[in-house]
Amino acid sequence: MKVTDHIKNAKGETLFSFEIVPPVKGKNIQHLYNNIDPLMEFNPPFIDVTTSREETIYVKKEGLLDKKTTRMRPGTVGICASLKHKYNVDTVPHVLCGGFTKEETEYMLVDCQYLGIENIMALRGDAMREEQYFTPTNGGHAYAAGLVEQIQNLNNGKYLHDDTPMENNADFCIGVAGYPEKHLEAPSLQSDLKRLKEKVDAGADYVVTQMFFDNQKYFQFVEAAKEIGINVPIIPGIKPIAVKRHLQLLPQVFKIDLPQDLIDAVDGCDTNKAVRKVGIEWAIQQSKELKAAGVPVLHYYSMGKSDNVYSIAKALF
Questions:
Q1: Residue 43: its pLDDT value, please?
Q2: Is residue 83 pLDDT above 60, yes or no?
């Protein structure tokens, strides 16, 4: 079932969902199941599965370092199919511009259609570690709006290079990312909202936000989006702080602000266990306010560990 249909069927009730990161290659999927199992108690209608782009590594060869490209976390579509089968839950694979040609994207989308996966999260993706700025892959999309357009073309029966008519057209529900405090590369929030409008106009059906820790940023973002004609559901993304270094890491990586009350509470912790407790309590209060405001879904970034998300969901659902 499509994410938007789950929202409609909920008739105003706030749903619970979460995002997982595939295990690094060589790991057993059972580790992933062990983290997901407790969260199924709260009946998530869908689970997001991230996709990692390629990474550059250096392999020693005959005394020299040889530059190679690899993917450390493969298998997004396979994991989605496995979760769908094991838990009877809808899954949302993340599809990136970065690291993929348009042809490779089409292959992935066709695989998703064959497997009965109905939802896609369309993202531009991040720059590679050695890049200062995002560089489009040769033959790939430069922006998520182009990726959304390609998915919509497939929904309308249009392949990239093949005129063979489809017996059954794809019918993907398309999610995209939104940034309550603007994307780190955007010159302003207003220009970033215009980019979001381009994605929605290209066919995006819903938006999931980047993490935020001040609900007013989310409420203001939703109002600003409505003012420029963005009328699709906007799902808030929540990440509980788990370790002290998140105070420096999250603002640096995601260019977000942390409320001073949260900073003070984390600074006052002597251990990461105490930090996790603060992060859980803050996320619970965030979630309660958002739920009272009638958000369609509360979406949690679990980052491969479920115990803190379980504690938050237990207090809410």
A1: 97
A2: yes
Calculate the CA 136 to chain-centre distance: 20
More confident residue, 151 or 125: 151
Q: In the 3-class helix/strand/coil scheme, how is 10-37 assigned residue by residue? A: HCCCCEEEEEECCCCCCCCCHHHHHHHH
pTM of the model: 0.93
Are 220 and 252 spatial neighbours (Cβ–Cβ below 8 Å)? Answer: no
Residue type, 81: A
Long-range contacts of 129-133, Cβ-Cβ distance < 8 Å, separation of 24 or more: 129/55, 129/56, 130/56, 133/185
Q: Is 55 part of the annotated catalytic residue set?
A: no
Q: What are phi and psi of 98, to 5 degrees?
A: -65, 125
Q: Which of 13, 19, 41, 103 is catalytic?
A: 19
- 288: helix, coil or strand? helix
Beta strand segments in the chain, E = 15-20, 46-49, 55-61, 64-70, 90-96, 119-123, 173-178, 206-211, 234-238, 297-301
Q: Tell me what pLDDT residue 128 has.
A: 73
Where does residue 189 rank: exposed (0-12), middle (13-18), buried (19+ CB within 10 A)? middle
Phi-psi region of 89 (alpha: psi -120 to 50; beta: other; left: phi over 0): beta
State yes or no: pLDDT of 37 exceeds 80. yes
Distance from C-alpha of 79 to C-alpha of 85, rounded to nearest angstrom: 10
Q: How confident is the model at residue 60, as a pLDDT?
A: 62
Closest CA to 83 of 26, 25, 18: 18
Distance (Å) of CA 84 to CA 44, 159, 272: 12, 26, 34
Q: What are phi and psi of 50, to 5 degrees?
A: -75, 165
Q: In the predicted model, is pLDDT for residue 229 greater than 70?
A: yes
